[in-house]
Write a structure and sequence with these properties.
Rossmann fold, Alpha-Beta Plaits, 6-stranded parallel beta sheet, about 450 residues, alpha/beta
Length: about 450
Amino acid sequence: MKAIICGGGQVGSSIARELAAERVDVTVIDQNPELIRRIRDTLDVTTMVGFASHPDVLEAAGARDAEMIVAVTFADEVNMIACQIAHSLFNVPMKIARVRSQAYRNPIWSDLFSRDHMPIDAIISPEIEVARAIGRRFTVPGSFEMIPLANNRLRLIGVRCEDNCPILNTPLRQLTTLFPDLRLSIIGIIRDGTPIVPSGDDHLEAGDEVYIIIDAEHVPRAMAAFGHDEKEARRVIIIGGGNIGQSLAADIEDQFSGISARIIELNQERAEEAAHVLGKTGVIHGDALDPEILNEASISKASTVVAVTNDDEVNILASLLAKRYGAERAVTLVNSNTYNPLLAPLGIDVVVNPRVITVSTILQIVRRGRIRSVHSIGENFGEVIEAEARDTSSLVGKPIKDTKLPGGVIVAAIRRDEDVLMATKDTVINVGDRVILFATKDAVRKVEKMFAVSFEFF
């Protein structure tokens, strides 16, 4: 398979890395020679310096033979035109574009991207995806990650172990004895920045970030078992009234009737726009680093502050200042990985990385076949995969303990018809089961062989 990636920034290079690891023939186009040089030096892909929407550049990149184009340059218009040209001139089957401006996403223009107009198969809006990801976390107080699985019957939860976690230093194999009715599986631990695929002999330590897959009905009990009894958010202060802030506020208005929100926005024009667009959300024009503005927003009564400006440093400092003045919890958007080791010790409760969210969303779109869904966790740690077991799979018809799972793979749960089963070593997988498992990046290709099916892309 051949894919063209337009844009060599953080998102483009990450997608190129993921696809190249799955033996896709990838060509990356960017007009910045320095970005192209970095990609050429670090990835096994073809690179080109050029303007991604120019027909001659796309032709030189192999568009006539490409099965997919992913346009993620910084310019919406370049992304859209690249996809249009890929369709009109080169008949590329799958076209994905990143479109940031919400002007193109207005429902009244819903047919803009139809096949008869601008035939783009999937539109990715990072701001909307980030807002949705933050909103999901409101449903599980105390978590830093929440993703629904198996038609909402299961949850992927990320939780940090604090000093008061009652199960610290307890071998994981004993959790079943301690909580016999709690249906969960611990699939990953990040300790001091180091990812760990846990075994029954491992234990949890204070500061660990733990990923669990759990029956949706058991989430509150599981959070209590990990020492988290945070109340649901009632007052949310959003720092930054741009696309992410407005999308999050709109989601809160539509989906969370018990939550009231306020926005703090430094730019007067943007603050006025947010006040005009949002019906129930209060908007304050001012600097979130100014204590007087924080007091005006009643920061001391806020259950959660969400910092989503376009400046990492402002987001970090505003979050810390808000907690200093009484906010209970901080959710902070950070693009750069440079600050990651510092954020938890400083008191940042949840870090949101737009690049990871965008890449994960794009991978869900391009993968098809028996792989039903894919969700990236951690920074290049691994993926939670929902896949259908076929009769040719080596997993079918015998207990999991006898299947010789490759290292880095944990089978967590099974959806069988309308039932959801937490997997044990004695569980037998049947043909047609939806298997929810975790695989480290190095083990993803082994999962492909294990299910006797290739990752298909459309």
